Amino acid sequence: MPESGLDRIKAINPAILVGLDFGSATHKDSLQELEQLAISAKIQVMAVVEGKRSRPDPTTYIGSGKIDEIAQLLSQNNASLVIFNHDLSPAQQRNLSLRLNCNVVDRTCLILDIFSQRAKSHEGKLQVELAQLEHLATRLVRGWTHLERQKGGIGLRGPGETQLETDRRLIKKRVKLLKEKLSALQRQRNVQRRSRRRTNVLSVSIVGYTNAGKSTLFNKLTRAQSYAADQLFATLDTTTRKLFLAESGSVVISDTVGFIRELPHMLVAAFRATLEETVQADILLHVIDASSPNRDEQIEEVNKILKEIDADTIPQVLILNKIDLTDLAVGGKGCARDEYGRISRIRLSAKTGDGIEFVRLALTEALVENSKKMYEQSTDIKKVIGGCATVQELF
After folding, report:
1. Average pLDDT over residues 5-24
2. In whole angstroms, what is the distance from residue 137 CA to residue 128 CA?
């Protein structure tokens, strides 16, 4: 797997975080999230540098005064890593590394590194490698001037081919291979979905912001042993289990990767095969951290990504999780219904199991409604076929 920029840095090395305020209302929240991401990547945060600007500096993103401030903090804390809460251009990243004499990475690189650490399944590792290579390909443009010099290579480079051209060609070849492998896995997944469709099994996907408690809810419902931890992106690999509901039958439920604001587009694209479980679902359980002061913004971010993957029209049930950490802890569990009588909002604690029965009730009602719809469709088809004199009249 390619180096992400953090691979050369030991996990215990201290780092300096940098975040500039360009007038955004979510600046503080985003910077706090960057700190959580760094901790999730096992990086020790020594200091946070903030500043206000109207627009980024085209050469170094920050001004010379901030560069001097960061250099001083690096020396004082014996740190060797600077993490920006922004996407840096290849030239900006190179210029900052030269000025600060240390490794400089951006938010996208940090998220990619976390994904690289957490991916466990074969498909997950392929998806992460694809995202890393596509990110690395952008770093080759105007970023790696030391690769521009011509080098000889036996059996590797053609006459006059530069190292940069060779690297670009090899990356392109590897990306093509990874996409072919992921396409094969996606076809296999589609076969499994068609099989479930034939048996009229209701498909449910658990979605939500990272660290909202999706895996905890999944484990509580299915008694699975999916990894759940109080950290960002604890789950990367989609896990699917069959859940038996005594009142109505079985549903297939999937635990998916969490979302985050400014999620790199290359990750959304690379994980599209995994996110297909969400796109093909009949109903979404949208898990929300009810204890978070930013829950409304997090709901908006999740819905934004759902729209990006064409899953915004799928019916949702909002799950207000972690009520044990809020004022709702005492007598706060329960559910609300929409104008059609369907359960649309549930308050619960996936950790304690308080209120989990309402999720089962919502799934039971959805399964009954789905079975009724399938029966009506089947009846309509039989009526159409019965009213045709010949099969040709159907076409």
Report:
1. 72
2. 14
Q: How far apart are CA 300 and CA 321, in angstroms?
A: 17
Poorest-pLDDT segment among 3-17, 279-293, 299-313, 343-357: 3-17
Residue type, 78: N
Distance CA 273, CA 296 (A): 28
Contacts of 371 (CB under 8 A, 6+ apart): 200, 248, 249
pLDDT at 260 over 70: yes
pLDDT bracket for residue 151 (50, 70, 90): very low
Q: Which residue has the tokens 């549903």?
A: 251
Provide mean pLDDT across the span 22-43: 86
* Cα gap 285→255, rounded to integer Å: 10
Alpha-carbon torsion (372, 373, 374, 378), positive or negative: positive
Position 131 scores a pLDDT of: 84
Res 361 pLDDT > 60: yes
Ranges 23-37, 131-145, 277-291: which has the least confidence? 131-145
Tokens 């040709």 belong to residue = 392
